[in-house]
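User: ok so my PI wants both of these folded by tonight, can you help

Assistant: No problem, let's get them done. Here's the first:
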Amino acid sequence: MDSAPFLKLKHWQWWALVAINIFFLLAGQAAAVLLGRFYYDQGGNSKWMATLVQTAGFPVLFIPLFLLRPSSEASTSSTSPPIRVLALIYFVIGALVAGDNMLYSVGLLYLSASTYSIICATQLAFNAVFSYFINSQKFTALILNSVVILSLSAALIAVSDDSEGPSGVSKGKFLIGFLSTLGASALYALLLSLMQLSFQKVLKKETFSVVLEMQIYTSVVASCVAVVGLFASGEWKSLQHEMQGFDAGRVSYVLTLVWTAITWQVCAVGVVGLIFLVSSLFSNVISTLSLAVTPLAALVGFHDKMNGVKVIAMLLALCGFASYIYQNYLDDTKARRPETDVRESRDNSSC
């Protein structure tokens, strides 16, 4: 876990930023998933539109970007990398994000919700491998314990899902869905590690504005790719009919898409923020934790049933979350100890 850029912050300030980003990720993802479910329940069926709204809400991020811009001038980091390097990073990551979103859409189309969720939980295992080789992430017993417990929690929730899978799906399409979801989970884990590597080795900035810039510019690229796919596939021709046939009405159709786009951006800021503040593995652990939090939101919003298995899964997720948080606390204390010793020695020498 590399929190070196934030060692200048006070202990409680750093943890406050981490807590804020955890809230953004959990609340944003839960809301986005529920809105996405509402979209399909009310008659929406465009895969490319569902892909587009995951990144199309990036304009709202210009507001906090402009508010945080003055503080970014106080950064003591080295000169910014060349524009061509930044453009290449944003283009590659943005294109990968678009592909990842589409793979998830294809997987959910051909798999049942429970099978889909179980496969999605494998992103933690993929991220553990990528973090080890790309980000030099060290593993301890607490981290492994957290990964295992959270994976079991996600699997329990998936098994307890009462919804039935799509009917009429052939073995060939099932295989496509399985490979698409597995590939999307691996690609998502790779994206987190690549973002962390970009922050550490290329961007090297010490302000949160770099997090917003990363999210905005990659979302621009991903949205452009999704728009091209929307028109190339011909799905745009059915959007007007889809709006007219939306059970909740045209206004609700538009508002559903708008708020889905916004909540996905809130979630993405939390994801990228945790990568910048802590690590890609930590961000992925919190993302997996949301698989246990989302049923609570569904219980309130859609009156879903909360059985004993889901309660146990949520308790497991909280235990895994606490295990990882405690490990991060130990690492954070160890990282700050040399700086504290230096300050104490200076104070003693001045006396």
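One down. Here's the second:
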Amino acid sequence: MINQYKFEDEPELRDLFITVDDPESHITAIETFITYRVVTKTSRGEFDSSEYEVRRRYQDFLWLKSRLEEAHPTLIIPPLPEKFIMKGMVERFSDEFIETRRKALHKFLNRIAEHPTLTFNEDFKIFLTAQTWELSSHKKQGPGLFSRMGQTVRAVASSVRGGGVKNRPDMFTDINDYMETFNQKINLLDKISQRIYKEERGYYCEMKEYGPIHTLWCASEEDLVDSLKGVASCIDKCCKATENRMAGLSENLLPVLHEYVLYSEILTGVLKRRDQIQAELDSKVDALSNKKAEKDLLTEEIGNLEDKVECANNALKADWDRWKQNMQHDMKTAFLNVAENNIHYYEQCDVCGSGKRRF
């Protein structure tokens, strides 16, 4: 199983390396926010230098994601962490929250860097290289392609609602069905895994208080000193094993599951945008057959929309195959890591149990 999935489309040599690190807190009269250092090293000719270092805040990452969606409406843009990650599990601006977000932002940029199309996006290059004032100036520029398409797409969307697209290719119907099932399963896994983590953390906190009680008890029970110390030692080892298992869940499983919860929402949006382009084409074809407008004008519009649909289909098909391979790889790796962590946990606890039986 470990070598089941092979990524033949991945480049052999990488030419863009990005690191997100060194979070800094900024407090102003208006707001408190965190910035992260983004270090880029590259050998690409379109970059003026081989290394860049800039600082970016969460809003800048949101801007980049928005611009990528505008420029590539039928590509699968990697997800960003939400404003509050794992709400209820960590406090905003705590070290745990900041580190969790830093890892997610690091993954976001590297997902883009590894994408065969997104990696060459001009806004992505500007994000990596521009100084803060330059980026602020660039962000004030007008809306991109997706915003200009918005009015047409929204006008057609009303005709799409309440019914399926007439001429949707079977492949995209299959993808849509797959994503409906995937969305249900991944959301359920995400909720259960977070609940398990919370319960595990509660158990860990109880264990930390439980062990020392036996050590203190030794002072008043001379005949039970060895037994009580043995139990205290066993509980301490189990506590450490539980802590390691919690770390494995929070590092290897929870972020992966939640990332693909966000991915499922993104893919649903991408499929809808593809359908909206298809619906616009269908409406023009119907208008032509009903002779509701001038044929020459409609024929030209239909030709342009056919090209648009073909481009959207090809882009989404290639991205879907790539995304599915990555998803299978990420899930397999996450579940294998959890299985290994559980094996180590039970081995440690079994040693403790064997020790207890000697008393």
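The first strand starts at residue 16 and ends at 27. The helical segments are 58-71, 95-114, 122-129, 132-139, 145-160, 170-217, 225-289, 295-356. Good luck tonight!
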